[in-house]
Amino acid sequence: MEIVKPAYGWKFRMAVLSASLLWASFHFWLVNRWFGYSVEVSLIESFDATFFMVGASFIGTFIAQYIPQSSRVQAVVLLGFILTYCCHYIVQESLISLASEDSEYLIFINQSAPVRIGIYFLVIAGSGVAMIFYSRISEQQLMAKRESATTHMVREAELQKLQLQLQPHFLFNSLNSMNALIMVDPAKARDMVQQLSDFLRATLKRADEQWITLDQEFVYLQLYLAIEKVRFGHRLEVQAECDDQIKLWLIPPLLIQPLVENAIKFGLYGTTDSVLISLKTERIDNLLQIEISNPFDSDMQPAEGSGFGLNGLRRRLYLLYARNDLLKTTIVNNRFTVQLTLPEKV
Question: Which long-range contacts (CB under 8 A, 24 or more apart) does 226-231 make?
Fold first, then answer.
């Protein structure tokens, strides 16, 4: 047997009490003014009937909790018939005993029995059926909230995983560069260790933040480029343009660095020439456009790695903005360009 527990809060009790008071007032007026019985009889009638009506409504909502899941409505209706008969018998006998000397009123009680039975049944069975539907709606809402919370948790977990991903070759190559510098230039090797430490510390710090300013992202980017410039020396040149008016634009953290890393990977690897990587940021209406370009030679490209990559970044953007059109790539005149468009955070 499945137990459903509707919430019997103060709102429900107040609603039942208010309805009972209204019913008592109407019942008193009906018996006293409409049918012309005395005030005493009308008070007894309204009090007695209302008392059992309130009890019946609570009984109806109670039985709706402890009945099988299957055929629940049918069971409530059947029990409603049984309880209706019981309530009618108790009320009828109590009213007859209280007004045994009023023959006209006794005739009225017998004549009004079908109406009383109908009202009792509607109250008992109706409250039970209403509570069943209320319980089902509450369960569905609770299930929807749980599914929403689960979806949100999965989304946040995936976002954090994507955000913390680093290109493995970048970390390994940095360590190899440090190893080579230890014997040749120990001071520079120590500087590179410190830079890598600052970079990784900033990465972990950004993992706990959902939004940062564009200026903060550029500070993190400088930590990354300082390491890469030690590795590549004069071969790496980065030209960054950022309007001061958009430095406070809020963006997801660790968003630009993977794009610059991708540009270095496909622009510098496989060549000994110096390479210029350009980074431009500008505001277009209510959009922030970030454009990163690097030289591209299809004959001298490294093998695809297993790190973050553009696909991982596309997935992250979709989780954040629910859009698949924010990251575009083009190749024109041997230059590979990545264009990232971010809506304004409201």
Answer: 226/195, 227/174, 227/192, 227/195, 227/196, 227/199, 228/264, 230/177, 230/181, 230/188, 230/191, 230/192, 230/195, 231/173, 231/174, 231/177
Domain ranges (residues) in the chain: 10-157, 165-343
Q: Cα-atom radius of gyration of the chain, to the nearest Å?
A: 38
Give dist(CA 79, CA 66) in Å, integer. 12
Beta pairing, strands 236-242 & 275-284: parallel
How far apart CA 82 and CA 79 sit, in angstroms, is: 5
Report the DSSP beta bridge partners of residue 328: 339
- Residues 99-119 have a mean pLDDT of 76
More reliable by pLDDT, 343 or 48: 343
- What's this model's pTM, rounded to 2 decimal places? 0.57
The CATH number given to 165-343 is 3.30.565.10
